Amino acid sequence: MVRKKNKTMQTRARSLIANDNPKSPIAEQFRTIRTNIQFSSVDTELESMLVTSASPSEGKSITTANTAVVFAQQGKKVLLVDADLRKPTIHYTFRVDNTFGLSNYLVSQHSVLDLVRGSDVENLDVLPCGPIPPNPSELLGSQKMEKFLEEAKEIYDMVIFDTPPVLAVADSQVLSRIVDGVLLVVRSKQTEQEAAIKAKEQLEQSKANILGVVLNDRDVKYSNYYYYYGR
C-alpha cells in the first residue's frame, strides 16, 4: 500500500497541468508567469533562461516543465533541456528515454537535432540529461556548452534549462552566465528566508539576470497550489 501511495504522489508531482488541464486556475497562473517573464525583458528579446531553486524539493522541475509548456502554447518553438546532470527528472516527466542527452553533446560530436526528443505538446521538444557525468559543473561551464546554446537558439525561439538548486552545487551559477535570465523557485512554508536570500545573492555574484521568483505551493481558497511572480 505504501509503495502504491508513493507512486501516485510521484505521478501527480510530475503532472503537466498546463497541458493536461489548461483551463485550471494553476494553468492560468503559469500563463501569468509567462506574461511577467516577457514583461521583465521588454527591452531585449528573451531567448534562453534557466529555472532553479534555493534547495531541493521546492517544485523547481515541475515548474520548469509547465513554464515550457505555456511558452509552447503561445506558438513559440521551445526546447526544454535537463541541465541537472546530477538528479535529472525531465525524462520521467515526459516519459522519454534518457540513454542519450545533453551530456552526450558536451563530450562528443553530436548535433542538437541528433539528441532532442519530441513531446506530446505541440511546439515543445525536450533534451534529457543523458548519462550522468562525473564533472557536471565543468561541462556546464565549458565552451562546448556555449556552442550548444548558440546552436539551439538557431533552431528554437526559446531554450529553457532545468538546473540543480543554487545552494547545493555551483551548476546553476555557472550556467546563469550564458543565459538571458534566471527564474528562482521557492516553496511556501518550506524554503527558509535566509536560504532564499543567499540563493539570490549567489546568483547576483555570477552576474545573473534574475527575472523573478515563483512562490510555489501556497495554500489559497479553492486551490492547492499558487504560483506567484515578483521581483
Describe the structure.
The chain has helices spanning 2-13, 17-20, 25-40, 60-73, 90-93, 102-107, 112-115, 136-140, 143-155, 171-176, 193-205, and strands at 48-53, 78-82, 117-118, 124-127, 158-162, 181-187, 210-216, 228-230. It is of the alpha/beta class. The relative contact order is 0.19.
Blueprint of the fold:
Elements: H1 2-13, H2 17-20, H3 25-40, E1 48-53, H4 60-73, E2 78-82, H5 90-93, H6 102-107, H7 112-115, E3 117-118, E4 124-127, H8 136-140, H9 143-155, E5 158-162, H10 171-176, E6 181-187, H11 193-205, E7 210-216, E8 228-230
Parallel strand pairs: 1-5, 1-6, 2-4, 2-5, 6-7
Antiparallel strand pairs: 3-4, 7-8
Helix pairs in contact: 3-4
Write down the overall geometry.
Answer: globular
Give me the side-by-side strand order of the main sheet.
3-4-2-5-1-6-7-8
Mean pLDDT: 86
Q: How many beta strands in the DSSP annotation?
A: 8
The topology string of helices and strands comes to HHHEHEHHHEEHHEHEHEE
Question: What's the helical proportion of residues?
Answer: 40-55%
- Taking pLDDT < 50 over at least 5 consecutive residues as the criterion, the unreliable ranges are 1-13, 221-231
Our estimate of the beta-strand percent is 15-25%
How big is the Rg? 17 Å
Category from helices, strands and their pairing: alpha/beta
Q: What's the number of helices?
A: 11
What's the N-to-C terminus distance?
Answer: 43 Å
Largest β sheet strand count, sense and barrel closure: 8 strands, mixed
